[in-house]
Design a protein that fits this description.
twelve-stranded mixed sheet; 2 domains; alpha/beta; 383 residues
C-alpha cells in the first residue's frame, strides 16, 4: 500500500497563510490530486507575480494545471460564492473537471438568517453551521450541489480517489481554518468554529484510510490572530481571546517591533509616538469579512498540543517579517553558513521554537507572494 497522502494544516487560529503554502507545494511537487473540505467562511489567498487569487471551496492546488481537483463531503457551498470564485479564476479552471462528492449541501438564505439570530459568539455568519446542522438532521429540505459548468457532483468521486490512492505519488489534503478553532480540542469553546480541525478529520472527511497518510506540514505564524469583535452590522460581539490572558497585541506594536527588530510586547507608547510614521503598516484584514484581525502573542503550550494531535513532519513559519521588517519579501536559501543571512536574535527564536515543539522549521514565509520565502530545508536536514 502506498503512503502518498500529505496534509497542509493551520496550527493556530487560521489566517496563517495556508493558501500560499498550498500553492507552493502543489507547484513544487507537481501533485497529482488535491482535496478540500472547505466552506465559504474561510478564504485562502495565493499570490504569484503580483496576481492575487482567492479560493474558498475550489482547491488552491488548481494553480497547478496538472492536478485533479476534488471537493469532499465535509464541504458546504454557497452558490453565489462559488460562482464568483470560479469566474475570478476562470483562466486556470475553464475546461478542467472538478469532482464533487454528491453529499455537499448548499447554503440557503434561511441558514444565514438563522445564524445571525442564534449565534452569540464570533462567527462570519455565512450560514455554514446552520447548513451542516440541517444535513445532520437528514430532513427532506436539504439541497445538495449538482453542478456549475465543469464542477460536477458525481459518484465517481470514490472511483477517481481510489485511482490516485493506488497509483499517484502525491495527494494533497488542503486544510481550512485552524487547530485553535477546533470545536473539541482547541480549549476555546464556545469561541470556535462548528467542526473539528485536525489531520485525522481531514482524512475522514475525504474518505481516505489513515494507512495512506504520509506526512503533514503545519503552517504557523509568530503572532496568531483571531477574528474581529465587530460583526457584519457593526455591532460588537466577543469572539474569544487566544491562549494566556492579556496576550493581545496592537498592530502598532507589531509594526514598530518589526521596524526596530524588537519583540512587540516590549514596544511602549513612547515608541509608538516616535516611530509610527516610519514603520510600515502590517495591519491585516480577514479575507471573507474584511474586518481588522486581532493579533496575539504566541502561546507555546497551545501550539505544543496541536503538534501532539497532528504530528506534523515539518513546520512552515509564515509572517517571519513581523519579527524584523528587514526580511520582508526576501527569497533565498539558508544553509547555516552561506546563502541568505539570519541574524543572531532570529536564529535564537527559531532554535527556541524547534526545541519546544520538537519539529523542524523548514520554511520561513517573508511576504504574500509565492516566492517570498527563505528555504531552510537543506540546513535542517543536516541537524
Amino acid at each position: 500500500m502506498k503512503r502518498n497522502v500529505y496534509a497542509i494544516i493551520d496550527g493556530q487560529a487560521g489566517s496563517c497563510g495556508k493558501g500560499k503554502v498550498i500553492g507552493q507545494y502543489a507547484l513544487e511537487n507537481n501533485i497529482d490530486a488535491a482535496i478540500t473540505n472547505c466552506m465559504p467562511n474561510a478564504g485562502h489567498t495565493f499570490v504569484s507575480n503580483g496576481k492575487k487569487r482567492v479560493f474558498c471551496n475550489i482547491p488552491v492546488s488548481s494553480v497547478n494545471e496538472n492536478t485533479e481537483l476534488f471537493i469532499g463531503p465535509g464541504s458546504v457551498i454557497d452558490m453565489n460564492s462559488l460562482e464568483r470564485e470560479y469566474e475570478e479564476n476562470k483562466d486556470i479552471l475553464e475546461g478542467r473537471e472538478i469532482i464533487v462528492h454528491p453529499l455537499v449541501p448548499l447554503i440557503k438564505e434561511e441558514h444565514i438568517l438563522r445564524e445571525k439570530q442564534e449565534i452569540k459568539t464570533g462567527s462570519t455568519f455565512k450560514g455554514c453551521c446552520a447548513c451542516q446542522t440541517e444535513k445532520m438532521m437528514r430532513g427532506p429540505e436539504n439541497i445538495f450541489f449538482k453542478e456549475y459548468k465543469n464542477i460536477k457532483a458525481t459518484d465517481n468521486y470514490y472511483k477517481r480517489l481510489q485511482y490516485h490512492l493506488k497509483n499517484s505519488d502525491y495527494i494533497l489534503l488542503e486544510g481550512a481554518q485552524g487547530c485553535d478553532l477546533d470545536m473539541n480540542h482547541s480549549r476555546h469553546y464556545p469561541n470556535t468554529t462548528s467542526r473539528q480541525v485536525s489531520v485525522a478529520q481531514m482524512l475522514a472527511d475525504s474518505g481516505i484510510s489513515p494507512l495512506y497518510f504520509k506526512d503533514a506540514i503545519m503552517v504557523i505564524r509568530p503572532f496568531p490572530i483571531r477574528i474581529s469583535n465587530e460583526i457584519y452590522d457593526g455591532s460588537k460581539i466577543y469572539s474569544g481571546d487566544y491562549g494566556e490572558k492579556n496576550s493581545e497585541l496592537t498592530w502598532n506594536q507589531i509594526n514598530i517591533g518589526s521596524y526596530l527588530g524588537q519583540y512587540p510586547s516590549v514596544i511602549t507608547e513612547e515608541d509608538v509616538e516616535e516611530y509610527q510614521d516610519l514603520a510600515d503598516d502590517l495591519t491585516e484584514h480577514t479575507t471573507v469579512t474584511k474586518k481588522i484581525r486581532r493579533i496575539f502573542d504566541i502561546d507555546i503550550e497551545l501550539l505544543k498540543r496541536n503538534i501532539e494531535i497532528n504530528t506534523p513532519a515539518e513546520i512552515y513559519l509564515n509572517f517571519f517579517e513581523q519579527l524584523d521588517s528587514s526580511y520582508r519579501n526576501l527569497h533565498g536559501v539558508y544553509t547555516g553558513s552561506d546563502g541568505i543571512y539570519i541574524d543572531k536574535y532570529r536564529r535564537e527564536y527559531l532554535s527556541w521554537l524547534e526545541e519546544e515543539l520538537g519539529v523542524s522549521i523548514t520554511m520561513l514565509g517573508t511576504g504574500p507572494d509565492l516566492n517570498h520565502y527563505i528555504d531552510r530545508r537543506q540546513y535542517v536536514k543536516k541537524r
